[in-house]
50S ribosomal protein L17 (bioreactor metagenome), 59 residues
Amino acid sequence: MVVKVFDELGPRFQTRPGGYLRILKCGFRPGDNAPMAFVELLDRPEGGEVVEGEVAEQA
């Protein structure tokens, strides 16, 4: 995980002054009522590689 952050994500966000993440709050977890959120990295790489199995899952 750390290798991916420094080797792939670091160069991708090198010119960006901030705002690397999008955080969407999605309510509270049943049971212990802990707050939950979706965390998304911005600036996705151009033309991502699609695997044949992923296409069927998205449909």
